[in-house]
Amino acid sequence: MKSRNVVRLFFSTLLLGGFSTLIASFFVKTGVYAENLNPFNWFEILGLLIFFTGLGFVFSLISQMGYFAYLTVNQFALGVFRKYWSTVQVVLIAFSLFDLVYFRYRSVEDGTITPFLLIAIALFIYSWFVAGIKAKETNKKTFIPALFFMVVVTSIEWVPGLRTENGDYAWLMIVPLILCNTYQLLILHRLTEKK
User: Fold this and answer.
1) CA dist., res. 155 & res. 67, Å (int)
2) Secondary-structure breakdown of the chain: helix, strand, coil percentages, each rounded to the nearest 5
3) Checking phi first, is residue 194 left (phi over 0); if not, alpha (psi -120 to 50) or beta?
4) 37 φ/ψ angles, rounded to the nearest 5 degrees
5) What is the dihedral sign for C-alpha 136, 141, 143, 147?
6) Dihedral pair phi/psi, residue 40, rounded to 5°
C-alpha cells in the first residue's frame, strides 16, 4: 500500500471517530449539554464539543492500533496454525461472546443477564453482516477473519469502556469503535487493489 493511502486511511478514520463520538455524545450525555443550554453558556458548549471530538480521536486511535495489530497477528497465526487458524478464530469468537455475557454479568451484583446477552447478540449480528460484505467484495475466505476482527478485536478494544463505573462511556466508546473498525475493514482492499 502506498504511503499516501496509509495517511488517507489514518486521517479519514480519525475524523470518523471524532465525528461519530461527537454525535453519540448528544444522545448519551444529553444532560450535560442541557445544563449549559439554559442559560446558554457558549464557552462550556464549545468545551464539550472539543472534549467529545478529542475523545473520539482517542477511540479512533485505539481502533487503528487494534486493526494493524490484528493484521500482524493474523499473518503470524497463519504461519503457526496454518489450516487450523480458521477453527481457532471460531473458538476465540465464541469465547469472546461468552466473555461479553457471562463475566460481565458476574461482575454485577444484582441485575439480569438480558442486557449483556442482547449486547453480545447485537455485536455478533452486526459483525456477521460486515463480514458478509467483506467476503462478497473480496473472497469467501475472508469471512471468518473479518468476523473475528469485528467480534474479538472490537471486544478487546472496548475493555476500557466496559471497566468504567459510568456506563455512558462504554456507549460513547463502542459507537466509534464499531464504525472505525467497519470502515477500516471494508476500505483496506480498495486501497491496496492494483489498478
Assistant:
1) 12
2) 85, 0, 10
3) beta
4) -95, -20
5) negative
6) -70, 125
141-152 per-position pLDDT tens digit: 999 999 999 999
3-class SS string, 103-150? HHHHHCCCCCCHHHHHHHHHHHHHHHHHHHHHHHHCCHHHHHHHHHHH
What pLDDT, on a 0 to 100 scale, did the predictor assign at position 11?
96
Tell how far CA 159 is from the center of its chain.
Answer: 11
**Does residue 176 have a cis peptide bond before it, meaning omega lies within 30 degrees of 0?**
no
Examine the pLDDT at 1 and tell me if it is beyond 80.
no
Res 12: pLDDT? 96
Environment class of residue 154 by beta-carbon count within 10 Å: exposed (0-12), middle (13-18) or buried (19+)?
buried
Q: How far apart are CA 124 and CA 151, in angstroms?
A: 6
Q: Cell 441485575 maps to which residue?
A: 111
